Amino acid sequence: MKRRSFLTLSGGAILLASTGYYLWSDKKNLVRNDIDLKETEKISLKPDENEILYLASLAPSGHNTQPWFIKYIEPYHWIIGNDSKRWLPNIDPNQRETILSIGAFLQNLEFASSNLGYDCQFTLLATHNQNENIMEVRLIKGLRKFNFDPQKIIKRCTVRSNFSSERIQEADLNFLRREDSENLHFIPNNDPNYQFLNNQTIEANRIQSYRDSAELELSNWIRFSNKEANAHLDGLTTAGMEIDGISGWIVRNFYSKQTVMEKGFREKSISHVIQQVSQSAGWMLITSKGNSVATLLETGKIMQRLFLKIRDKGIAMHPMTQILEETATNQTINHSIGIKDPIQFILRMSYLKSYPEPVSLRRPLDVLFHS
Fold first, then answer.
1. Strand pairing of 184-188 and 343-351?
2. Which residues neighbour 121 within 8 Å (Cβ) at sequence distance 6 or greater?
């Protein structure tokens, strides 16, 4: 699950602003609050269904591809599907990350359903990561509610900058690992493995940046202009990549897919990764007991449960899983850091002085439904 940040163009691009170009250009980042996510016309949803599926759709995914769809069987009875048009075959050839993302979607769905008084009955349909139908879901009105604040889902966001090197307190780590201690492994910044992960993250990004197929795939999911972002409502936007002000204006108006393939862009991306990994309290690794569909879905749910806890403790989390996506780095990581189980997530963590609002775009519910 990867995000890139960019530096500004040369002064020549800025000079164009004085010629009148600025008046009709993209002047402001498109953000999530600019989009009405809850309106549906294709299917008449019950109010609770609308709320539950909206909250489920706020799950994270690599390049913000949102690789899920919904087959509507009847009220409170759906199939959650795997959208092959939203796969990332060049960095995720076996759809491992896709299934993890669908697991995060299912965790949001379960919390949202429980908060409205429904028990979730899940029936696994998939036997491998490429199956179209992943999970059958039935909601049954329960006798007891499990109170879960939906604002935790709404406010969840990935933060990439302003990280601190302050150590995360043991009490906060215990809170984060409480339900999932066997799967969560924190490597603080005073551990020798911390620098190993820093170096391997830089190396994996360097490899990936110069692997043309991966870079081209990235370019296809960057929404440089607001017009393109509004047309797709997915992918990586300037706001989602934390590019604001004049830098954001330049990227929205002068960058293109071809820019991503240029050497200068690749080198700037690597430089930014070097800067990012130099600032954190440590790395959180999430492991699983295998790689079956069921196990990957559960691991995606573990990741999402962690994501929904960290804001309460003022902690930010930035997925940087390029080590797992590149063969040269993936082959050595378990042995090098002494973990036997498969590693599914590598997350940079830090305390944060203030949290930004979530800005990454989401498709409205209407477009999530498949016949």
1. unpaired
2. 137, 138, 139, 140
- Per the CB < 8 A criterion, the answer to whether 98 and 89 are in contact is no
Give the end-to-end CA distance of the chain in Å, rounded to a whole number.
Answer: 29
CA–CA separation, 232 and 13 (whole Å): 26
pTM: 0.93
User: Considering only CA atoms, which of 323, 245, 275, 291 is closest in space to residue 29?
Assistant: 245
Query: The tokens of 170 are what?
Result: 């043991």
Q: Give the CA-trace dihedral at 151, 238, 297, 209, to 10 degrees.
A: -150
DSSP designation for 160? -
* Whether 126 contacts 133, CB under 8 Å: yes
Return d(Cα 260, Cα 269) in angstroms, integer.
Answer: 10
Instruction: Compute, in degrees rounded to 10, the torsion defined by CA atoms 234, 316, 112, 100.
Output: 60
Q: What is the pLDDT of residue 4?
A: 45
* Nearby residues of 26 by Cβ (< 8 Å), 6 or more positions away: 225, 226, 227, 249, 252, 253
- Cβ-contact 29, 359 below 8 angstroms: yes
Residues 94, 81: Cα–Cα separation, whole Å:
16
Percent of the chain with pLDDT over 90: 83
Domain annotation for the chain: domains and CATH numbers: 32-155+360-370 (3.40.109.10), 157-351 (3.40.109.10)
SS3 306: helix
